Amino acid sequence: MLAATQEQAGSVWEVLRVATRLGLTSFGGPIAHLGYFREEYVNRRKWLDEKTYADLVALCQFLPGPASSQVGIAIGLLRAGLPGAIASWVGFTLPSVLALVLFAYAVPAGNMETSGWLKGLMIVAVAVVAQAVWGMAKTLAPDRIRKTMVLLAAIAALSFPVAGVQVGIIVMAGLLGWWLLPRVAPPDTLSLSVGLGRRAALLCWGLFFGLLLLLPLLAQGGGLWLPLIDGFYRAGSLVFGGGHVVLPLLQAVVVPAGWMDAPTFLAGYGAAQAVPGPLFTFAAYLGMMTAGWGGAVVAILAIFLPSFLLVIGVLPFWDAIRRRPAFQAAFAGINAAVVGILLAALFDPIFIKAIVSPLDFCLALLAFGLLMIWKLPPWLVVLVAAVGGWIIG
């Protein structure tokens, strides 16, 4: 067990160096990222043991936000304190942030459908999200009750396509899970503690909820920057499941506000599949397209700030929370609703904006087969789809 008074074992530069290498090479989404982390931090460098790593993964799956990024933040925190947490996040996210900002420079102005390879990026998003829905449904909705919750969540999200409704769906699913799903005691695991007191944790919780409540009020004053901060902070705060699940919330932030159209949004989402690192760095592309470099910086900081506040805020209380079967049942319900929200996003805006001809659908099927049957890495499938879109165009 890691003692609460433990002296940090590593340097900030060491954490930054290792995290940057992972940020340059970690393709394949959050589940793949966790595999890369285990190989690097547990097997190769032995910064923590297998059980402690499993505790961290369980913790970050329990929280809203990008699970793999939160695991990296937690490992950096354990290794070199708060500066280590920041270094771990910077190293893991900066490569994909820079790649997506450069892609935003390359996106042509005007109608996105006129560019064949960008059309291919929109089409590959159909296959990538369909794969995510398929895999998550098998894992997170294995029984009749949770399958029904998936369908009801999708119906509600499509019938009332606003961000507030999505939050309500998540809350209602948690309550239904608490009430309907069996409460199974989790197995005994190693206690996890770090050199952070509960006072610091409570301060982070206060900031997390304070910003969540205050920013929407401030954003009503108009302008660009406060609504931008509010939208991306809310997206980073309210997404359970991370990764592709953030898509509908981000779409609800930038498209209805008129900051960009749906094809521009989907082209960036397709490009995000071709870069390593966390999918939440898609926010850098959206910020860049909205307000230039300043928008990219603001968007990426706003969407990841909740991850820092939540990881620091929950670590001192995690052992007590995770041993309560009722909480396990509630989050099982939330996970089922997440699949439903993602299923709704697969239809609108992804499918209806990207697939407009039989050839488009053929290319989407090809990409889906390469992902699901041939198990090709997503970045390679993205390149195939971009070439296919160029040929079709």
Automatic annotation (TrEMBL):
It comes from the Bacteria. One of its GO terms (molecular function) is chromate transmembrane transporter activity. It holds the Pfam family Chromate_transp. InterPro entries: Chr_Tranpt_l_chain, Chromate_transpt. One of its GO terms (cellular component) is plasma membrane. Belongs to the chromate ion transporter (CHR) (TC 2.A.51) family. It is found in: Cell membrane. The chain crosses the membrane at residues 86-105, 117-137, 149-180, 200-226, 238-259, 265-286, 293-318, 330-351, 363-392. This is Chromate transporter. It is a multi-pass membrane protein. Keywords: Cell membrane, Membrane, Transmembrane, Transmembrane helix.
